[in-house]
Write a structure and sequence with these properties.
CATH superfamily of the largest domain: Intergrase catalytic core
Oligomer: single chain
CATH topology of the largest domain: hpI Integrase, Chain A
Number of helices: 17
Radius of gyration: 29 Å
Largest sheet: 3 strands, antiparallel
Helix content: 40-55%
Distance between the termini: 104 Å
Number of domains: 3
CATH class of the largest domain: Mainly Alpha
Order of helices and strands: EEEHHHHHHHHHHEEEHHHHHHH
Number of strands: 6
Strand order of the largest sheet: 1-2-3
Protein backbone atom coordinates (compact mmCIF):
# COMPACT_ATOMS: atom_id res chain seq x y z
CA UNK A 1 0.00 0.00 0.00
CA UNK A 2 1.30 3.54 -0.74
CA UNK A 3 2.23 5.88 2.07
CA UNK A 4 -0.74 7.50 3.76
CA UNK A 5 -1.46 9.73 6.73
CA UNK A 6 -3.63 8.86 9.69
CA UNK A 7 -4.31 10.47 13.04
CA UNK A 8 -3.39 8.68 16.23
CA UNK A 9 -4.38 10.62 19.33
CA UNK A 10 -3.42 14.23 18.71
CA UNK A 11 -0.58 13.47 16.28
CA UNK A 12 -0.38 12.56 12.60
CA UNK A 13 1.31 9.32 11.61
CA UNK A 14 2.47 7.88 8.30
CA UNK A 15 2.22 4.24 7.22
CA UNK A 16 2.65 2.12 4.13
CA UNK A 17 5.32 1.09 1.62
CA UNK A 18 6.98 2.77 -1.35
CA UNK A 19 10.02 2.33 -3.55
CA UNK A 20 13.19 3.48 -1.82
CA UNK A 21 12.05 2.36 1.65
CA UNK A 22 13.01 -1.21 2.44
CA UNK A 23 10.47 -1.98 5.16
CA UNK A 24 6.90 -1.17 6.09
CA UNK A 25 6.73 2.34 7.53
CA UNK A 26 4.56 3.15 10.52
CA UNK A 27 5.75 6.08 12.62
CA UNK A 28 4.70 9.37 14.11
CA UNK A 29 5.35 12.62 12.26
CA UNK A 30 5.32 14.40 15.65
CA UNK A 31 2.89 17.10 14.63
CA UNK A 32 -0.82 17.78 15.14
CA UNK A 33 -0.95 20.17 12.18
CA UNK A 34 -2.26 18.43 9.04
CA UNK A 35 -0.54 20.90 6.69
CA UNK A 36 2.83 20.23 8.35
CA UNK A 37 2.14 16.49 8.28
CA UNK A 38 1.46 16.55 4.53
CA UNK A 39 4.66 18.56 3.95
CA UNK A 40 6.64 15.97 5.92
CA UNK A 41 5.00 13.15 3.97
CA UNK A 42 5.97 14.82 0.68
CA UNK A 43 9.59 15.11 1.87
CA UNK A 44 9.67 11.43 2.89
CA UNK A 45 8.38 10.45 -0.55
CA UNK A 46 10.89 12.76 -2.30
CA UNK A 47 13.85 11.22 -0.49
CA UNK A 48 12.48 7.72 -1.11
CA UNK A 49 12.30 8.39 -4.87
CA UNK A 50 15.91 9.64 -4.78
CA UNK A 51 17.03 6.39 -3.16
CA UNK A 52 14.97 4.32 -5.58
CA UNK A 53 16.57 6.02 -8.61
CA UNK A 54 20.12 6.71 -7.36
CA UNK A 55 20.64 3.77 -5.03
CA UNK A 56 23.95 4.13 -3.16
CA UNK A 57 24.52 7.50 -4.82
CA UNK A 58 21.47 9.01 -3.12
CA UNK A 59 22.33 11.78 -0.63
CA UNK A 60 22.46 10.67 3.01
CA UNK A 61 21.21 12.54 6.06
CA UNK A 62 24.74 13.84 6.54
CA UNK A 63 24.77 15.10 2.95
CA UNK A 64 21.57 17.05 3.56
CA UNK A 65 22.49 18.44 7.01
CA UNK A 66 22.09 22.22 7.02
CA UNK A 67 24.16 24.58 9.12
CA UNK A 68 21.00 25.65 10.99
CA UNK A 69 20.26 22.03 11.91
CA UNK A 70 23.88 21.55 12.96
CA UNK A 71 23.60 24.62 15.23
CA UNK A 72 20.52 23.18 16.91
CA UNK A 73 22.39 19.95 17.64
CA UNK A 74 25.52 21.73 18.90
CA UNK A 75 25.69 22.20 22.72
CA UNK A 76 26.68 25.86 22.58
CA UNK A 77 27.27 28.13 25.55
CA UNK A 78 25.11 31.29 25.79
CA UNK A 79 27.80 33.57 24.35
CA UNK A 80 28.47 31.27 21.39
CA UNK A 81 24.73 30.92 20.77
CA UNK A 82 24.50 34.70 20.45
CA UNK A 83 27.35 34.74 17.94
CA UNK A 84 25.78 31.92 15.92
CA UNK A 85 22.46 33.75 15.69
CA UNK A 86 24.24 36.42 13.65
CA UNK A 87 25.87 33.79 11.43
CA UNK A 88 22.73 31.78 10.64
CA UNK A 89 21.22 34.37 8.21
CA UNK A 90 24.37 33.93 6.09
CA UNK A 91 25.02 30.17 6.40
CA UNK A 92 21.82 28.72 7.83
CA UNK A 93 20.39 27.22 4.66
CA UNK A 94 23.71 25.94 3.33
CA UNK A 95 24.60 22.30 3.68
CA UNK A 96 27.41 21.79 6.17
CA UNK A 97 29.46 19.81 3.66
CA UNK A 98 29.39 22.77 1.23
CA UNK A 99 30.77 25.38 3.64
CA UNK A 100 34.38 26.19 2.79
CA UNK A 101 37.10 27.61 5.09
CA UNK A 102 37.56 30.71 2.93
CA UNK A 103 33.85 31.49 3.19
CA UNK A 104 33.95 31.28 6.99
CA UNK A 105 37.14 33.33 7.13
CA UNK A 106 35.63 36.17 5.09
CA UNK A 107 32.29 36.17 6.87
CA UNK A 108 33.66 38.21 9.78
CA UNK A 109 34.18 41.18 7.46
CA UNK A 110 30.54 40.96 6.41
CA UNK A 111 28.98 40.66 9.87
CA UNK A 112 31.43 42.87 11.77
CA UNK A 113 32.99 45.26 9.22
CA UNK A 114 34.30 47.64 11.89
CA UNK A 115 35.62 45.01 14.31
CA UNK A 116 39.14 43.64 14.67
CA UNK A 117 40.37 40.39 13.16
CA UNK A 118 40.50 39.02 16.72
CA UNK A 119 36.75 39.62 16.96
CA UNK A 120 36.22 37.83 13.63
CA UNK A 121 38.11 34.84 14.99
CA UNK A 122 36.34 34.82 18.35
CA UNK A 123 32.78 35.52 17.19
CA UNK A 124 32.69 33.88 13.75
CA UNK A 125 35.53 31.49 12.96
CA UNK A 126 35.68 29.75 16.34
CA UNK A 127 31.94 29.08 16.88
CA UNK A 128 31.29 28.16 13.22
CA UNK A 129 34.24 25.75 13.21
CA UNK A 130 33.01 24.24 16.48
CA UNK A 131 29.54 23.58 15.00
CA UNK A 132 30.92 22.05 11.80
CA UNK A 133 33.46 19.86 13.60
CA UNK A 134 30.78 18.71 16.05
CA UNK A 135 28.67 17.68 13.05
CA UNK A 136 31.70 15.82 11.70
CA UNK A 137 31.96 13.74 14.88
CA UNK A 138 28.21 13.16 15.17
CA UNK A 139 27.14 12.74 11.54
CA UNK A 140 30.28 12.15 9.48
CA UNK A 141 30.17 15.46 7.58
CA UNK A 142 33.57 16.86 6.52
CA UNK A 143 35.56 18.65 9.24
CA UNK A 144 36.84 22.18 8.75
CA UNK A 145 40.04 24.03 9.56
CA UNK A 146 40.18 27.77 8.98
CA UNK A 147 43.48 29.54 8.46
CA UNK A 148 44.36 32.11 11.14
CA UNK A 149 44.42 35.81 10.30
CA UNK A 150 47.95 37.13 9.82
CA UNK A 151 49.53 40.10 11.60
CA UNK A 152 49.41 42.00 8.30
CA UNK A 153 45.67 41.36 8.01
CA UNK A 154 45.19 42.50 11.59
CA UNK A 155 47.13 45.72 10.92
CA UNK A 156 45.20 46.35 7.70
CA UNK A 157 41.85 45.98 9.47
CA UNK A 158 43.02 48.18 12.34
CA UNK A 159 43.83 50.91 9.81
CA UNK A 160 40.39 50.55 8.22
CA UNK A 161 38.56 50.86 11.53
CA UNK A 162 40.92 53.54 12.87
CA UNK A 163 41.69 51.68 16.08
CA UNK A 164 44.56 49.48 17.15
CA UNK A 165 43.73 46.00 18.42
CA UNK A 166 45.60 44.09 21.10
CA UNK A 167 46.40 47.24 23.00
CA UNK A 168 48.49 46.74 26.09
CA UNK A 169 46.27 46.43 29.16
CA UNK A 170 46.94 48.39 32.31
CA UNK A 171 46.79 45.96 35.24
CA UNK A 172 45.20 46.81 38.56
CA UNK A 173 47.33 47.65 41.59
CA UNK A 174 46.78 48.12 45.31
CA UNK A 175 46.86 51.90 44.87
CA UNK A 176 44.23 51.76 42.11
CA UNK A 177 42.03 49.26 43.99
CA UNK A 178 42.04 51.38 47.17
CA UNK A 179 41.08 54.58 45.31
CA UNK A 180 38.39 52.72 43.38
CA UNK A 181 36.85 51.30 46.56
CA UNK A 182 36.73 54.74 48.18
CA UNK A 183 34.18 55.88 45.59
CA UNK A 184 32.45 52.62 44.64
CA UNK A 185 29.31 51.14 46.15
CA UNK A 186 30.01 48.24 48.55
CA UNK A 187 29.28 45.58 45.93
CA UNK A 188 31.53 46.96 43.18
CA UNK A 189 34.26 47.67 45.72
CA UNK A 190 34.11 44.13 47.10
CA UNK A 191 34.07 42.74 43.57
CA UNK A 192 37.22 44.67 42.59
CA UNK A 193 39.07 43.51 45.71
CA UNK A 194 37.96 39.91 45.22
CA UNK A 195 39.04 39.69 41.57
CA UNK A 196 42.37 41.40 42.25
CA UNK A 197 43.31 39.06 45.10
CA UNK A 198 42.05 35.81 43.55
CA UNK A 199 42.61 36.32 39.81
CA UNK A 200 39.02 35.34 39.12
CA UNK A 201 37.16 36.34 35.99
CA UNK A 202 34.24 38.71 36.33
CA UNK A 203 31.77 36.14 34.99
CA UNK A 204 32.85 33.72 37.73
CA UNK A 205 32.61 36.31 40.47
CA UNK A 206 29.16 37.67 39.59
CA UNK A 207 27.71 34.15 39.39
CA UNK A 208 28.64 33.35 42.99
CA UNK A 209 25.75 32.79 45.39
CA UNK A 210 25.79 32.83 49.21
CA UNK A 211 26.11 29.03 49.36
CA UNK A 212 29.49 29.38 47.59
CA UNK A 213 30.97 31.08 50.65
CA UNK A 214 32.81 29.17 53.38
CA UNK A 215 34.18 32.12 55.32
CA UNK A 216 35.00 30.11 58.42
CA UNK A 217 37.52 28.18 56.30
CA UNK A 218 38.58 31.35 54.41
CA UNK A 219 37.59 30.01 51.01
CA UNK A 220 34.93 30.35 48.29
CA UNK A 221 33.63 27.95 45.66
CA UNK A 222 34.41 29.55 42.31
CA UNK A 223 32.22 28.61 39.29
CA UNK A 224 33.83 27.07 36.20
CA UNK A 225 35.17 29.22 33.36
CA UNK A 226 37.09 28.75 30.09
CA UNK A 227 37.77 25.07 30.50
CA UNK A 228 38.64 25.24 34.20
CA UNK A 229 36.38 23.26 36.49
CA UNK A 230 34.64 24.84 39.47
CA UNK A 231 36.81 24.67 42.57
CA UNK A 232 37.47 25.97 46.07
CA UNK A 233 39.73 29.02 46.17
CA UNK A 234 41.45 30.41 49.27
CA UNK A 235 40.88 34.09 50.09
CA UNK A 236 42.67 36.65 52.22
CA UNK A 237 41.52 37.81 55.66
CA UNK A 238 40.60 41.20 54.18
CA UNK A 239 38.33 39.53 51.63
CA UNK A 240 36.77 37.34 54.35
CA UNK A 241 35.87 40.43 56.39
CA UNK A 242 34.60 42.29 53.32
CA UNK A 243 32.32 39.44 52.23
CA UNK A 244 31.10 38.85 55.78
CA UNK A 245 29.85 42.44 55.87
CA UNK A 246 28.31 42.37 52.39
CA UNK A 247 24.61 41.44 52.50
CA UNK A 248 23.52 39.26 49.54
CA UNK A 249 21.55 41.09 46.85
CA UNK A 250 19.40 39.56 44.10
CA UNK A 251 20.49 36.11 45.27
CA UNK A 252 24.12 36.83 44.35
CA UNK A 253 27.15 37.51 46.55
CA UNK A 254 28.07 40.67 44.64
CA UNK A 255 24.50 41.59 43.72
CA UNK A 256 24.87 41.74 39.92
CA UNK A 257 22.72 39.73 37.52
CA UNK A 258 25.53 39.53 34.95
CA UNK A 259 28.89 41.09 34.14
CA UNK A 260 27.14 43.58 31.85
CA UNK A 261 25.47 45.15 34.91
CA UNK A 262 28.85 46.12 36.34
CA UNK A 263 30.38 48.35 33.67
CA UNK A 264 28.30 51.56 33.91
CA UNK A 265 28.93 52.02 37.63
CA UNK A 266 32.56 50.93 37.18
CA UNK A 267 33.15 53.70 34.63
CA UNK A 268 31.41 56.28 36.83
CA UNK A 269 33.55 55.34 39.82
CA UNK A 270 36.79 55.72 37.87
CA UNK A 271 35.71 59.18 36.73
CA UNK A 272 34.67 60.31 40.21
CA UNK A 273 37.84 58.89 41.78
CA UNK A 274 40.03 60.67 39.21
CA UNK A 275 41.75 57.42 38.27
CA UNK A 276 42.42 55.85 34.90
CA UNK A 277 39.62 53.62 33.68
CA UNK A 278 40.73 50.02 33.98
CA UNK A 279 38.17 47.42 32.91
CA UNK A 280 37.24 44.74 35.48
CA UNK A 281 39.20 41.96 33.76
CA UNK A 282 42.39 44.04 33.59
CA UNK A 283 41.96 45.37 37.12
CA UNK A 284 41.37 41.88 38.47
CA UNK A 285 42.98 39.02 36.60
CA UNK A 286 45.71 41.07 34.92
CA UNK A 287 46.29 42.86 38.21
CA UNK A 288 46.68 39.52 40.01
CA UNK A 289 49.20 38.27 37.45
CA UNK A 290 51.27 41.44 37.56
CA UNK A 291 51.11 41.88 41.33
CA UNK A 292 52.24 38.33 42.07
CA UNK A 293 54.95 37.83 39.44
CA UNK A 294 56.26 41.32 38.62
CA UNK A 295 55.76 43.35 41.79
CA UNK A 296 56.05 40.68 44.49
CA UNK A 297 58.44 38.35 42.68
CA UNK A 298 56.41 35.21 43.39
CA UNK A 299 57.51 32.09 41.51
CA UNK A 300 55.54 32.05 38.25
CA UNK A 301 54.64 28.37 38.71
CA UNK A 302 53.06 29.11 42.09
CA UNK A 303 51.30 32.21 40.76
CA UNK A 304 49.89 30.33 37.75
CA UNK A 305 48.57 27.58 39.98
CA UNK A 306 46.98 30.02 42.42
CA UNK A 307 45.41 31.99 39.58
CA UNK A 308 44.25 28.84 37.80
CA UNK A 309 46.12 29.47 34.54
CA UNK A 310 46.59 26.43 32.31
CA UNK A 311 50.35 26.99 32.32
CA UNK A 312 52.95 29.49 33.58
CA UNK A 313 53.60 30.47 29.97
CA UNK A 314 50.02 31.74 29.53
CA UNK A 315 50.44 33.88 32.63
CA UNK A 316 53.76 35.30 31.44
CA UNK A 317 52.64 35.86 27.84
CA UNK A 318 49.37 37.66 28.55
CA UNK A 319 48.86 38.63 32.20
CA UNK A 320 52.18 39.62 33.79
CA UNK A 321 52.87 43.15 32.54
CA UNK A 322 56.29 44.78 32.70
CA UNK A 323 56.48 48.03 34.65
CA UNK A 324 59.34 50.46 33.95
CA UNK A 325 61.13 47.57 32.30
CA UNK A 326 63.36 49.73 30.12
CA UNK A 327 64.47 51.86 33.07
CA UNK A 328 65.21 48.79 35.19
CA UNK A 329 67.35 47.28 32.44
CA UNK A 330 69.30 50.51 31.97
CA UNK A 331 69.81 50.80 35.74
CA UNK A 332 71.12 47.25 35.82
CA UNK A 333 73.85 48.25 33.36
CA UNK A 334 74.89 51.41 35.23
CA UNK A 335 78.44 51.33 36.66
CA UNK A 336 77.22 52.35 40.12
CA UNK A 337 74.89 49.35 40.35
CA UNK A 338 77.57 47.04 38.97
CA UNK A 339 80.00 48.26 41.65
CA UNK A 340 77.40 47.82 44.41
CA UNK A 341 76.63 44.28 43.22
CA UNK A 342 80.33 43.36 43.17
CA UNK A 343 80.84 44.68 46.72
CA UNK A 344 77.77 42.81 47.95
CA UNK A 345 79.15 39.54 46.60
CA UNK A 346 82.49 40.12 48.33
CA UNK A 347 80.88 40.62 51.74
Amino acid sequence: MPLSLYRKGTKWWVRGRCDGIDSYLDRSLKTSDETVARAKLAEIERKARQRAVLGDDAPTAADELSFSAACVAYPSKPADAGYLLKVIPHLGEKRVKDIKPKEVRELGKVIYPHASSDTWRRQVVTPVSAVINHAHHEHGTPPIRVKAYTSDERAEQDEIRGKKSRQRKTPGSWEWIDKFREHANPYAGALALFMFTTGSRITQAVEMVPDDLDLMSRRVFLPSAKGHEAQWVNITTEVVVTLANLPPRNGRVFGYASRHSVYKHWQTVCKEAGIKYIAPHAAGRHGFGTETVVRQGINVVDAAEAGRWSSPRVLLDSYAHSEDGSRKVLDAFSRDNATKSAKAKQQ
